[in-house]
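Lab meeting tomorrow. Look over both lines:
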Amino acid sequence: MKAMILAAGRGERMRPLTDALPKPLLAVHGKPLIEWHLEALARDGVRDVVVNTAWLEDLIPAALGDGSRWGLRIRYSMEGRDHGGALETAGGIAKALPLLVDGPDDCFWVVSGDIHAPGFRFDAAQGERFAAGELLAHLWLVPNPAFHAKGDFGLDSDGFGLADSAGPDGVRWTYANLALCRASLCAGIAPGSKAALGPLLFAGMRERRISAEVWRGAWENVGTPDQLDALNRPRAF
């Protein structure tokens, strides 16, 4: 199964650091954020990765190359070059589908290039089980961070995501920007169109075609310079 790393965003809240560097290339513990994902994907058996780019996009392939140093093949979906800017999450996935899949039933991993989840496993067996079913997506959710206290989705007792309410636990969780996706989730978006992923996820949940689970390992959405500084502080053991 292939994987897509979302790396096209401008990173406005991370300015001025992102005035000269794409956010996925900012370093955490001496390593660019995106490299943490590349290492994890290679460790877990993924061999083909698509990275979408827009903001300062030439710097990303210059930094990562063809992926051979990690035992990967990296291909790039150049939204800035082809469309003049980022296409948002679903639009970016739709443009990249020809590099990711052969048909609408094929599946792939999706991870945002600006999160840090060093213990997450891109489990091949779980990917195979998902591909054998008919769901549109399987999402990982995390406890709500302070900057997103209201969360995104509820989680039903049977493992389906809830678009319009909290689950039986009374909680709405935050989408971790980690997912397994089926190509048909975004196949209706014309390549080159701007489109957000959220409305597609809400619609899929209302049809009970999106499952989810809670990830309780280390996770950070690295959105501001202060968050990056905090993540890079030496840890006491």
User: Anything to note?
Assistant: The mean pLDDT is 93. The longest helix spans residues 88-100. Residues 30 and 232 are 9 Å apart (CA to CA).
